[in-house]
Fold each of these.
Amino acid sequence: MLYYLGQELSSEISALNLFRYLTFRTVAALVTSAFVVFLFGPMIINALRLRQGRGQPIRSDGPETHFKKVGTPTMGGLIILCGVIISSLFWANLTSVYVWVVLMVTIGFGAIGFYDDYLKVSSATHKGFGGHKRLFLEFIVAGIACYVIMINGEIPFSSSLTFPVFKDWIIDLGLFFIVFGAFVIVGAGNAVNLTDGLDGLAIVPVMIAAASFGLIAYLSGNAIFSSYLQIHFVQGTGEVAVICGAIIGAGLGFLWFNAPPAAIFMGDTGSLALGGMIGTTAVATKHEIVLAIIGGLFVMEAMSVIIQVASFRMTGKRVFKMAPIHHHFEKLGWTESQVVIRFWIISVMLALIGLATLKLR
């Protein structure tokens, strides 16, 4: 919205030239989304607390320290989504199809997560939206997004899988790209969802991943920088950096309320939406494999659940004391703050490794 203001009036008011610069709009989106969250956060939290009563159900088999969290409201992702959507509409160039694709997945996954949270809160159990039904809807949303990404790029590159380090190694997936991309997006959404189990645990790694992919989107969408770094140029993806900036700002605002002891939980509303947003950005910028590195913490959390379930079904034994793996470390005696901060450190290190692949060619 404000991008157009800069386009129309910059000749008359030179200061409005700033609105044409992607870097300025990305920082502005960060500040705007943080402001929106700080402004409306308390109001939304109070409204959710009144309507939810007992708040998010606490697992009876979980760490004993979690029982004191009874009554904490969930669906805090609504706060984040408000900040991200409002800020993105203000500062992004809305002619970019990638902006709308990323926002569509973010809102679509957020809606699915909201319904899941609603069912859990209303029934006071962990049984929310049926797993198969939820995954089906997620794949529909993600599949549409991947189709739009594919037809709006240069074929066959838009339907190809690229690899970090090996700049000339490209595999054309054809129509299978839609399935592959949807798997990446759905996997990212659910991996972040599994990570969201402790106060502040998910939101900071999400912000780190958003910052990383904001930089990747900016570089991939810039012909000069992508040529210098010898990464693949994807015209139009630079605008996604604005949404990534909005994610960081909204995340900072949410962390203010989610820091221990949390006043509100993110819930599936936020974790699915944020994971889907990061996954879609990775698919759009052709950095799906790098996502597995930068989002390695989320991969670790998801794999711990898969390993735990597979082991129990095949042998009747559990590999971890409790899954996802952050609960395993709690059962080993780590305090919640130790788990959270150490996982943040791991997330930062993985992000740096992932970004290093931009130069290793």
Note: DSSP finds 14 helices and two strands in the chain.
Amino acid sequence: MRTLLYCFRDDLRLHDNPALQAACASADRLLPVWLTPTPADTAWGFARIGTRRSAFRASAAIALDAALRRQGSRLIVRQGSMAQALPALAAAANADAIYCEDIATPEEAADLQALRAQGWAVRSHWQATLFAPDALPWAPQDLPDVFTTFRQTLARAGATPAPPLPTPNLPPLPEQAEAMASARLDSPTEQADPRSSFPFPRTGFLGGEDAAMAHLAQYLARGLPHSYKTTRNGLSGIDYSSKLSPWFACGALSPRLVLQQLRAFEAVHGASASSDWLWFELLWRDYFKLLQLKYGKQLYRAGGLPGKAPPPHDEEAFRRWRRGDTGQALVDAGMRELAATAYLGNRMRQIVASYLIHDLQCDWRAGAAWFESALIDYDCSLNHGNWLYIAGLGTDPRGGRRFNPDKQAAEYDADGAYRALWSAA
């Protein structure tokens, strides 16, 4: 009888989970585990993970535990890194191997290396993108360095993502699981800010597969893909963008499932430039994750991929930016929204990032760290990719993007409603 341990990482779901499918196919008994990180501060002096992101992920884990229990299993929760927490659990369960999602970012890759260095058999499966690396028309190290080339090459090759996998039938728990105490997962106690564009923890905005599926279903049922392109740069409101990113970030929702349902929507209601833009955005998500696979730690250097000199940094200006106290009304409104709700629309993310880098002359890594702490939908690959893009230190050939906040305000907040909404925290 073979017992395996499955460690959920950024894949808090049962549907379309290749690593979990592989574990279920190989195990007679399966121990599902999820790890919460040990609290820590960034090098810039603030908590690495903010309270709302922690609470959202906890709500996703609570939902995952409920889904597991419906199949006679449950989720064992521990705190710490994989190398710290998993060996004792695996040994107690007499597990032969540890299965998990494969993640290319440096710290997550180091987690698996540390486990293997302890002698554990680790089986990891890539599952965060539409396209698996081995399904692309090039080797990972040959990924094009320009997104447009990436997109056009995929189109010419006729590449299509594999269909999503169904929810597996879970093997029973090992007998030892009954004696394994689990760390407590508390339901969120935060209050939803009525101004928020992602009002967690209001009903419909909790983590977990059920909430994600319900949100996607209503988004499609209301025909919102047909207005996506014209509204995606909005600043306020639930419907101006898909709002799928928090569930993508914790893995409660599979991008392949979203694409499958989007194509089904288009088959009935017709494709449009707007619905096609959602496909375009899903490809951007893939691209940033595949860049991690190609470049790894190089993306985290102060000088980015080109290896330029470390950027300047003004600590006082950075503190004012974080507080929403720069004196630039649109930027301050965005930073106050982020602090109050843990969410910020894509257009505002670009504006405030550009202002920090190009106007305040601060280190892009400090801004990336603040987004890591503050954003409910933080995804390491996407966060770093976008900050490098704005700073001109990634693969983008244009060498950085500066957004004039006055021009942006005139275009996207001409009546001043957004600035008035967030004139105070």
Note: Residues 190 and 330 are 26 Å apart (CA to CA).
Amino acid sequence: MEEVTVIGGGLAGCEAAWALAKAGEAVSLYEMKPSRFSPAHKSAALAELVCSNSLKAKRTESAAGLLKAELRLWGSLCLEAADATAVPAGGALAVDREAFSTYITERICTHPLITLHREEVTALPENGYCICAAGPLASDALAANITALCGDALSFHDAAAPIVEADSIGKEYTFTQSRYDRGEEDDYINCPLDKTQYEAFHAALLTAERADAHPFDVYEGCMPIEVLASRGLDAIRFGPMKPVGLRDPRTGHRPWAVLQLRKENTAGTLYNLVGFQTNLKFSEQKRVFGMIPALQDAAYARYGVMHRNTFLNSPQVLNPDLSCKARDSLWFAGQITGTEGYMESAACGRIAAEQVLRRLHGLPPLPLPPETMIGALLGFVTGSASKDFQPMGANFGLLPPLPVRIRDKQARNQALSERALSALREVPGASRSPYPPPRYA
């Protein structure tokens, strides 16, 4: 039995290690925590969720929901954990972060074919098969080694939203409702602002002092709230603070703007500020966010933070099967490839494992149908023609159009999802395995 090395105990690494082990392959999984932490990580557990506890929409007529449906066909460990640790979040799949990570850690640590090494990897192994899922926060030494091998390693900055204690939220200034009434009524706490309050809050965001005044690149999906605010008076009112789909029962009308708070844990003692990733100084976060009536006395369990993320110029350095052009026994997976998002990273790890399994069994690389969300996403990551490659999350724009135009958006998305799932069911490895029975099931 040839042991496969997996570097990184995040979602992609855990998904890859689990898939390999379930297929009967021995795995050495390396994770540098707790001997060393990145600036963004706090827990020693595997598969730590840093930015948010939401895995996005559940319904299959959404891109995020389709991705999860596809990943379920591959037997995803991360979705197994998410289902077991879910917290109410309307139409989204959100989890208790600590319980989610604990679940995955226990599954990984108790599998007899997975050996977990709690140590930092400073250089990619030159011999044997390896999946590098070091994430966007690879240590400086490993990042330098990757750059030396691949070149064109880029960096950008990512942001995490604050978390507040539930008891400190001014409930008299809030109402509970899921957007468009998807999910249970109390899945979200809504903090409404009238026009005057909103404009004062917007003005304060523009002048608030930031923790890092140096210019940097930020992925659009994680843009700090203060940067979004600088794009115009209504930029965040049509973004994270959009009031669409909500009605304040105290007035009977839609608010001018709304901050939504989503449960951070099963007990409902913590809530995160949805879409409020930020790089403001901690004191400024308390002052400016405190201008929202419901948060004027808020106690912060964690302030918003920013950290450097690193990703590869994947179209230049990776083959379509995620193997490295400079070393064909090395595969990359997760956010380091430019797959942006929790489930996107997990999917990337799962497919990298599948490609390694095929190599181990003497099979050619597995082509993924471009009609599937996973296939289209990884096709973009490894084949984008853009001169300015940037991370990409699941979206219907990646999929080829339907043969017949459907005008209704929801009906069109549902048809795209049905086509994708039908195509994926025919792929070896999804729902069925092309390999001999594993030595351990």
Note: The mean pLDDT is 90.
Amino acid sequence: MHEKKLTVIGAGLAGCEAAWQAAEAGAEVLLYEMRPLRNTEAHRTDMLAELVCSNSLRSDELTTGPGLLKKEMEAAGSLVMRIARQSSVAAGSALAVDREIFAGLITEKISSHPRIKVVRQEVAQLPDSLTILATGPLTSQPMAEEVARIVGSSSLYFYDAIAPIIDADSINSAEIFCASRYGKGGDDYINCPMSREEYEAFYNALVEADTALAHEFEEIKVFEGCMPVEVMAHRGVDTLRFGPLKPVGLKDPSTGKTPYAVVQLRQENRQKTAYNMVGFQTRLRQPEQKRVFRMIPGLRKAEFLRFGSIHRNTFINSPRHLNSDLSLKQRPHVYVAGQLSGVEGYIESAAMGFIAGINATKRLSGKEAVVPPRTTAHGALIAHITKADPDVFQPSNINFGLIEQHPDVVRLRDKKEKRRTMADIALSHWAEYIYKALPAERV
């Protein structure tokens, strides 16, 4: 059998998942990662699959889009999901990980695979050989220019923001309580309760705070699912109380009542030495973050291990430029994976890496790609990024609204029953897909 070689550019979640799946299917993989030779404005280490925005992989419940997508990935032998389980930290009904353990284990697994060679080098041009492009939302300028040259003016962008991380020792335990919403998962979150007066003072300070603007000549387009907290606040005084500061499902044990608003902190590592401010992605300047966020009960003397920040995310107009197997219409030997393909979120990025890795390996073997049905979470994402209206396209997380409803589901009226049925059908159809898509010895 002739040697099967594949190039993967970018070693984030998508690139690592793609490289792993291809190598496990028998391909010889060259995995390029530009860090640490060239860093980005958001990464802090040289480890593969470093998580920069949050340590949460979102809901683990099967009747949510992220929960279903994760279940499908696990059924297919996803490396990212296996390592996520091994590095998990308490997060109620969500799956969150210790970032350092997660990235360390991924780096170890990828680097030690006999059919994967990691090359620490920036790639500025797409090769003529079979390639998976997974450079992510922080694609370097030379590669972004290369992609723009191929897809033309349809290359799009939006701005993404990341949340601050707080030193656990600086949190005032007398002003907080520990609990998960509705009691799911135990006392996994630190909750900072706010009275009406405290909330209104915080809100007024937030909307008046000084922000770090992007380049003045660029229009700021912010992804709805990762909205900076101050942008959300400008939509109305109660917007935050129905969003990241919603008190629903929480009771302050010191009063026995539901607070007016609640700021939640999520465990960042297993040592519980650091906590992430849930939903507090921000573009506020650092002095303003100190001033405004220290108005929150429990955080009045907060020490910031990482400030929130804003950075540019790059993605292509995928409905215009991607085939259903994730190959570029203009360069069919190039597959696009991860957030560059038009999905949003860690798990979604890894899922597209999985699909690209499987399809590229099939091409190496001279076989036809198999596209998962739209009744599955993977198939729904692929349909969104390849079939949506290109004139109004925006990246999306996975959600049940994207999943095609089987006729057996349409007649159901109860929302929970409908989602459970959709999840059952999705997993059944996904099992049929992986039987066709994966090598026989891996099914």
Note: Confidence is low (pLDDT under 50) at residues 214-218.
